[in-house]
Amino acid sequence: MSVLIYAENAGGKFKKSIFEAVSYARAIADQNNTSVTAVSIGNVDATELASLGKYGADKVLNVSGDKLKDFINQAYASVIAEAAKKEGSAVVVLSNTFSGRGLAPRIGVKLEAGVADGAVALPEQAVGSFKVKKTAFSGKAFAMVELTSAIKVIALVPNSYKVVETGGAAQVEDFSVETKASDFKAMIKEIVRSTDKVSLPDAEIVVSGGRGLKGPENWGMIEELAELLGAATACSKPVSDAGWRPHSEHVGQTGIAVSPNLYIAVGISGAIQHLAGVSSSKVIVVINKDPEAPFFKVADYGIVGDAFEVLPKLIAAVKEYKASA
Amino acid sequence: MKILVCVSNVPDTTTKITFTDNNTQFNTNGVQFILNPYDEIALARAIELTDGGKGTVTVINVGESNTEATIRKALAIGATDAVRINAKPHDAWYVACQIAQYVKANPFDLILTGRESIDYNGSKVAGMLGELLDLPSVSIIKKLDAGDSDATVEREIEGGKEVLTIPYPFVAGTAEGVAEPKIPNMRGIMSARTKPLAVVEPVEVKTFSEIVSYETPAPRGQVKLIPPDDTAKLVELLHTEARVI
């Protein structure tokens, strides 16, 4: 049967979320005594492709060429579905990234496969049953979805499965698919990457600010702490609504759902909609001057204090820790 | 321009989520259902794009009669007419197949969905519709500018953004930034009562997924409070106890 994993690259490099997805695919393959094939699309060098072997890929199908160098949803879905057919894959794994979420449904239709996006755990498998735990109600619950189709597509939430180094080596093969002109109707005009910033959806640490910061001019403290910790910056909905920060930083029920190892909330009271989007963070730190703020009820660590007094001290403490580490 | 906006009927964002029947059914008791917030963004942009007689906006929902209040709200906000496909929305595949069937008989220039629904957090309907109708699809867009023969959209990518041009017809999943949701005014509320709402019977579709049970996240432990003057203690705990830095 084989398990296929789509190894999405960002500027020719694989991110940690892809190593998580390969490790996840390896575990499913081990449950079923089968192999893992990764498919990479775009211009990725041989060393980077071979690195997927370290996490359990037996084989890497490399699809390169100018036509497919940038992500076009329709065309990439065609390539991945063809790779799955070639490999006879019964399970296709993607990372639940912005691109993965656009690809999974198209691949699902092409392969007549049930799709579990937002997956957070390995499937529970028994004879005739394949159940995947996924997020539901914006993090307020989980749903166990049974996929009843012959082929299954799973999009794994970043940070929800560990990276496992198997120390294996992958054989890299060139792979080509005859693409249809109709797959290229959408044309990319421009790609803008902010290379100096940590990407929010797959960040391991997130430093987030709310209305308690009083205005956009005070975000320097959030950015400084984030930079020291190698974290992404985020904000609550009122902050993005007020235009203090871009919508792309808004986390919560109607923003981006995040599940970092550490979520630091500064000056955010913790409305139910905000908590929904961050509750799957492994460790939550809350800094708020209101001891009754609902966020303290779900926090692991808390400081009751004014952000303007606490943040500079926390920044200094992190600097000291870094200097001594 | 003829625009179709796919809308879903979801629990209000403040709803406390509980389950019944041994955690196999979502407890709808006392839950207020609303127009999915992301669909509101799609609807708002569709209304802006057709403002001043430049086209029509049809909203479509796959749902039983209890979703009509949500559909009427979409009409009150400014949609021209509405279609309800009279079925329980089993899963995204089922919903996409029903809408695709309707669109094959009633083509549109632009099909918008919200980036995801806030109940099952799937973002699948836009992509599935694209595939079923052999149209381009783009998920999680932050900006949509319509030209005569194509549109320019801005899509979020990890650590940046991508700008694309896409010829009509295509399908897009809208996120915050595309438009500000609109609040219905009294005139809209009054006119919504008389706007056409067609009820269409579903087609038979095989399903590939089933939710068999639910669970709620494990409760978190008691918060450990650290004095505001002792931030070094917090850093130490994050390093030695939580092991996250």
The whole-number mean of residue pLDDT values of chain B reads 95
Q: What low-confidence regions of chain A span 5 or more consecutive residues with pLDDT below 50?
A: none
Got a strand count of chain A? 18
Element-by-element helix/strand order of chain A: EEEHEHEHEHEEEEEEEEHEHEHEEH
Poorly predicted segments of chain B: none
**Helix segment tally of chain A:** 8
- What is the oligomeric state here? heterodimer
Q: Number of helix segments of chain B? A: 6
Strand residue percentage of chain A: 25-35%
Give the strand order of the largest sheet of chain A, numbering strands 1, 2, ... along the chain. 7-11-6-1-4-5-12
- Broad structural category of chain A: alpha/beta
Q: What is the radius of gyration of chain A?
A: 21 Å
Beta strand % of chain B: 25-35%
Large-scale geometry of chain A: globular
The number of distinct β-strands of chain B equals 15
Largest pleated sheet of chain A: 7 strands, parallel
Principal-axes geometry of chain B comes out as globular
What percent of residues of chain A adopt helix (DSSP H or I)? 25-40%
How far apart are the termini of chain B?
53 Å
Question: Which terms summarize this structure?
Answer:
A: about 325 residues, alpha/beta, seven-stranded parallel sheet, five-stranded parallel sheet, 8 helices, 18 strands, about 25% strand, B: about 240 residues, nine-stranded mixed sheet, two-stranded antiparallel sheet, about 25% helix
